[in-house]
Write a structure and sequence with these properties.
- Helix content is about 25%, strand content about 20%.
- The chain is of the alpha/beta class and about 500 residues long.
- It has two domains: about 30-390, Glycosidases (TIM Barrel), CATH 3.20.20; about 415-510, Immunoglobulin-like.
- Strand 8 (about 300), helix 11 and strand 9 (about 330-335) form a beta-alpha-beta unit.
- It is globular and about 75 Å long.
Amino acid sequence: MLKNIVYAIIVAFILPNTISAQTTAKIAPKREFRGIWVATVANIDWPSKPGLSIDQQKQELIALLDQHKKNGMNAIILQVRPAADAFYSKSREPWSQWLMGRQGLAPSPGYDPLEFAIKEAHSRGMELHAWFNPYRATMGGSSAVSSSHMTAKRPDMFFLYGGKKQFDPGLPEVREYIVEVILDVVKGYDIDGIHFDDYFYPYPISGQRINDALTFAKYPNGFTDIKDWRRNNVDMLIKMLDDSIHHYKKYVKFGISPFGIWKNSFEDAEGSKTSGLSNYAELFADSRKWVKEGWVDYINPQIYFSFTRKAAPFGTLVDWWSNNTFGRHLYIGQAAYLVNQKMEAAWRQPSQIPDQIRYLRENNRVQGSVFFSSKSFTTVARAVGDSLKNDLYKYPALPPQMPWLDDVVPNAPQDFKAEAANDGVHLQWAKPFMAEDGETASGYVIYRFDEGEKISVLNPKNILRVSFEDFTSFIDTTVDKGKRYNYLVTALDRLKNESEPSGPVGVETK
């Protein structure tokens, strides 16, 4: 970290006045993933309750996005398929019960929650990752499913565990169906990523048994150990999705957020020095393998532990995962919902999460964070939000680059102009010429500098606006009268590679 900062200072001193946008990739926090999970299951985060009017749903989502934008976030992980249902219209599955109050009940014609969320996120310079629960089909209890739900149409594709119906991962038709469901969204929506959380095979419940022996007997795939067979079933789905998503849209990121422990070192010498439930043994999810094989673009382990948690210290797990990224991105899942909780004294320390973020930034193999969950920032974690807004995330950040998906830099915007008017400074430019890969621009970054200030795109404090839209004009209404400013604009492609800047253009305000 210190070396990066020193390098940045040296580069800024030696190079000419305007510095390449690409040299900033490793310099925190100009590039950092800052995500927030927005859970729809049981109306945890949004909408606040089922059956709200469309206007109420939109207003709630806009308020939520505005809050997280102010706190410095640049990615929304929106749960669009909580239980084999949908928060989007282009779906082969029924509308979610948590949207309008009954599964299968459609909202007003013309309203698509996912489409609306994407547009609003992109206009704020935030990515939208569509979060799917691949195997969960019901939440148990008295929740009624519609006649078009897969549990009603194909009951043979599920087993019951802990009172909940779950797709049987060992069935080939289940894997094919889940891939089709996800590709509906990849093909039909302008999303930035596909995201899974930690629910694969169910978390163990005492006295419960997974009823998949018949499936194992029918489709053994060369395995004699049912545990290895289960892990392979999940592996096959992950590999199929990696291939399928990137076949249709190379720029759509695929990421998974597993439980924080892959294996404990007492189970495997390559595991972490921890002693808790593990993905590998209890959930039949070989999370490290997915990264090692390059089947995911990012891994987002849920390290919902404090620094002093004896069985699984935060720092121990961050260090372990950072040594097992195999060149892919590592974003750390952080537990905003545990702030001020009584379960452990460490969580009542206001510095717990801020110190965790500082710890991540000291490790150049960690590219950011995702917080669970949105609602926490209006309840127990309000102070954390203030720390982000006023300190740690004070300046904007671009998502980190993924060169294995796209390393072609877009061309710079053309014909950049700035003109002072009574209502502010009017900025205008033309789209860049097409780059080698056929892309022009999917977004822009506008930088502003006071007169006499060093003109460089290295420092995120000079970022005036980030948008993941292809607009080519902007009015800066935040200027002081009678002052002189310099402006730059850069182009972003779909994977947030940044062009050389156009400008600088100077203007004196009226």
